Amino acid sequence: MMNTVKFKGTDIREKNFAMALKKNVNAYFKTNNISTKANAAMVVKTIVLIALYIAPFVLILSIPMSGLLALLCTVVMGIGVAGVGMGVMHDATHGAYSNSPWVNKLFAGTIYLLGSNSLNWKIQHNVLHHTYTNITGLDEDIDNKGPIRLSERMPYKKIYRFQYLYAVFFYGLMTLTMLTNDFIRLTKYSKMGLVGAQNKKLGSEFTKMLLRKTLYLIVIIGLPLWLTPFSIWQILLGFFVMHWVASIILSLVFQMAHVVEGTDQEGTGHDITSDWHVHQLKTTSDFAKSNKLLSWYVGGLNFQVEHHLFPTICHVHYKHLAPIVAETAREYNVPYHSHPSFRAALRSHFTKLKELGLK
Question: Is residue 7 one of the residues assigned to a domain?
Answer without folding.
Answer: no
